[in-house]
Amino acid sequence: MPRYTYVALDARGQESTGLVEARSSNEAIGQLRQAGYFPTSVYEEGKGGPDGKVSRAGAKAARVARPRTKISIVLFQRKKVKPKIMMIFTRQLATLIDSGLPLLRGLNVLAKQERDTVLRNTINKLADGVQGGSTFSESLAQHPLIFNHLYVNMVKAGEVGGVLELVLGRLAEFQEKAQKIKNKVVAAMVYPIIVMTMAIAIMAFLLVFIVPKFEAIFHDMLGDKPLPAITLFVIGVSNFVKNHGLVLLGLLIAAVAAYKLIARTRAGRSIIDRFKLRVPLFGDLIRKTAISRFSRTLGTLVTSGVPILQALNITRETAGNMVIAGAISQVHDSVKEGESIVQPLEASGAFPPMAISMIDVGEETGQLPEMLLKIADVYDDETDNSVAALTSMLEPIMIVFLALVVGTIVIALFMPLISIISGLQQQT
Q1: Alpha carbon distances (Å) from 204 to 67, 209, 234, 239
Q2: Looking at residue 49, what DSSP letter applies?
Q3: H helices of 10-78, where?
Q4: How far, in Å, are 222, 270, 284, 322 from residue 281 at the CA level?
């Protein structure tokens, strides 16, 4: 096993040197920190001293050698970084560090090639923070709009354990799978939304422009003769839309605004999220997505070395559903009291029996993180199947809906025309 020469400061600020056996410089740094030392330089024995490969611990020297540079917290930021861009950045940084490139140099390389302005400026600030003596996680924490608690705490755990490149790889994998699920759900919703929009647009055009012209024709040709019930219904709807269209538009805008206001309150969000889980067709998909996110987030955090209570708090913040978040809060309190995590999950009613059983087995066998990641994989597959089934089901439903809407209007307009044509034939 390689041996690394280190220069470090103890708790009293006294400098000491020595050798430590480790598989990598990151592992050596972790051993020194766990022993209560603050490493200022770590390099492999026989590589020529500090001018060789110096790990991130070199940044710690700056913290002792000169006053720590203050990093201003960005209070307002107009733009966030897209998840896909963040995913690419994380994967590239993990690859660079894993290949042996120091963190600071890796950040500088990524800053030069990054096209997104916001992320490029942020990477430069991260590099300045690391160069000024802050740890990478401390620098990340200064940008909460871009790097959430999950990201920061996983990086912090990787720094403490000396496995930053491994944790960044897990983060990249986590982001990639989350983005994959999101893309599939969005793709499944595109077709129904397009069909629904077309149906509404066609219906509005027919009701506002076409039906009134046919109404005038019917009045001129049929006089006081009664019209079919379906025709009267369509004409009534047309007149209502034509005369009260602005009112309908205002009500729609007011409903959207009211929804957003209610969703901002805790009670309102809880009601909405509970309703989402019970919506036919979509509720099951939302539930599976939430369970997959919960399992993968918690499993990734615990596997990366984040303490379980802290991991539960982070998972609760990223749950995306108040019902799931409430269940996680109960789990947090249960674990804090030294109890099992299974009972709160079962009591919430949000988790299916299979997920609860797998978590129970993982807890009993001491393999909870691995079991959580398996659950996430299972429900990722379930989500894929649900999206495929939902798409295949919605396509014919939307086509039938569009046909019914247009067909009803067409039939309503042509039934009186048949009477008009019959009358003209009798006159001739």
Answers
A1: 68, 8, 12, 11
A2: G
A3: 25-34, 58-65
A4: 47, 20, 6, 20
Q: Which of 168, 178, 170 is nearest to 82 (CA)?
A: 178
Query: What is the reported pLDDT for 14?
Result: 59
Q: What tens digit of pLDDT does each residue of 139-156 get?
A: 998 888 899 888 888 888
Q: Which residues contact 290 (CB under 8 A, 6 or more apart)?
A: 319, 320, 321, 324, 350
How far is the CA of 382 from the CAs of 116, 275, 279, 348, in angstroms? 34, 21, 18, 21
Q: The whole model's pTM is what? A: 0.64
Identify the three-state secondary structure at position 239.
Answer: helix
Q: Which two tokens stand for residue 189?
A: 């919703």
Q: What angle do CA 162, 167, 171 make, to 5 degrees?
A: 160
Question: If residue 305 lies in a helix (H) or strand (E), which one and from where to where?
Answer: none
Element (H, E) at 80: none
Q: What is the DSSP string of 55-68?
A: -TTHHHHHHHHSPP
Taking 60 as the threshold, does the pLDDT of residue 61 lie above it? no
Side-chain-side CA neighbours of residue 153 (13 Å): 21
Q: Where are the domains of the chain?
A: 3-44, 83-147, 173-427
Listed residue (321, 330, 328, 329) closest to 282, CA to CA: 321
Would you mind telling me the total number of residues written for the chain in this entry?
A: 428
